[in-house]
Amino acid sequence: MTLPVKKIYVDSAFKESSSTSNSNCSIALRESFYFPDEGTVMMLDDVSIPHSWFSVEAGINDRLFFGVDDDGFTWYVATLTSQNYDGASLAAEMVTQMNATFGGNAREGTYDATNNVISMTLVEPYLSGTYDLGFPTALDLSRGYYGSAAFPFNIAYDTADPQAANDELLKLTVGEATFQKTGYLHVDLNPIKSLYIHCPNLSTNTTVAPNGSSGVIKRVPVTAGYGFQINDAVFNTHDHVDVSRLVLNVLKFDIRDKYNHHIPLHGHTWSCSLVFAITNSP
Predict the structure, then answer these.
(1) Nearest-5° angle of CA 156, CA 161, CA 164?
(2) pLDDT at res. 184
(3) What confidence category does residue 101 fall into, taking pLDDT thresholds of 50, 70 and 90?
(4) d(CA 86, CA 201)
(5) 136-to-159, 172, 209, 263 alpha-carbon distances in Å
(6) 13: closest CA among 22, 2, 4, 5?
(7) Among residues of the chain, what percentage have pLDDT more than 70?
(8) Could you tell me the pTM of the whole model?
(9) Which residues lie closer than 8 Å to 51 by C-beta, 6 or more apart?
(10) CB 185 within 8 A of CB 118
(11) Is there a contact between 132 and 181 (Cβ–Cβ < 8 Å)?
C-alpha cells in the first residue's frame, strides 16, 4: 500500500477566513487525500503553541463566587478584569470587584509572597458585626447550589474537604469553618495545565477528553509561562490515531482546556506536523 501523503505541516496562519480564531479554525488542503483501507495511522509531532493567554480570561476563569452570612446567606458573583496578574495585583483586583459587587468597602486583601497566599478579610463595620465571608467549593458549584447555573464555574475554591479538590486559580483553606472573618487563598496563576488539540476529521469517537468530549488527537502539557513558546516534540509511535479509509480535504482544529473552553491565543498562531504511516497494528 502507498500513502497519498506522509506528512502535513499545519500552521493556523493559513486558516480559512470563516475560522473563528487560531484556536478554533479550519485549514483547507491543496487537494483531497484518500488513505488506504487498513493499518493507516496518524501521529502528531512538532507541536508549537504560544502561551499567550492571560492568568484571568473572560468567560473562562473570571467569575468569583463568594457569599456573605449576616444571619442568612447572600451569594454574589464578581467579575475580574481579564489580564495577567501577580499575587499582589490579583488580591487588589479581588478586593475592588468584591466590594463593587457587595457594595461599600467591606473587605481588604493582602498577598503573602513567602507562602503564595492571599488573605481576604472583612473590615469594619462588618468585622465586628455578625457578617462572615465564605466561598462555595467546586463541588457545591457543580451541584448547582447557590442559584448557580451549570458547571464549570471557572474560579472555584477548596475547603479542607478533599472531595472538593480542584486546581483552579484560587484555593480556599479555612480549616473546618466554611465562613469566617478571614479566608486564606492559595494562588495558582497558571490554572491551565494541559491543552487538548481536537480534530474531528482525524478522530471521531476513538479518544475522549477529561470532560467527555471526543475528537482529541493530542494532549499538550503547558510547560512554558506567559510570553514563551510551548513545544511538544515527543514522538511516540504507540500514540497514534487510526485514519484508515479517511478522505481529508479540510482539517478542523480546536485547542481547548479540560473544561472544553477554547484557549484565547489573542491573535498568535500555532503549528504542528501530521505524520502518517502504515502499520500492521492499527
Answers:
(1) 35
(2) 65
(3) confident
(4) 40
(5) 9, 9, 26, 25
(6) 22
(7) 69
(8) 0.81
(9) 222, 224, 225, 226, 227, 228, 229, 230
(10) yes
(11) yes
What's the CA gap between 96 and 86, in Å, rounded? Answer: 15
Query: Region 44-66: what's the mean pLDDT?
Result: 88
d(CA 164, CA 138): 6
Whether 26 and 15 have beta carbons less than 8 Å apart is answered as: yes
Residue whose C-alpha cell reads 514563551 in the numeric block: 228
Task: Write down the residue that cell numbers 480546536 correspond to.
Answer: 254
Locate 120 and state its grid cell: 481576604
Count, residues in the chain: 282
Q: Going from the N-terminus, what domains does the chain have, and what CATH number goes with each?
A: 7-53+192-278 (2.60.120), 63-187 (no CATH)
Q: What is the mean pLDDT of residues 258-276?
A: 94
The pLDDT value recorded for residue 176 is 29
* Average pLDDT over all residues of the chain: 77
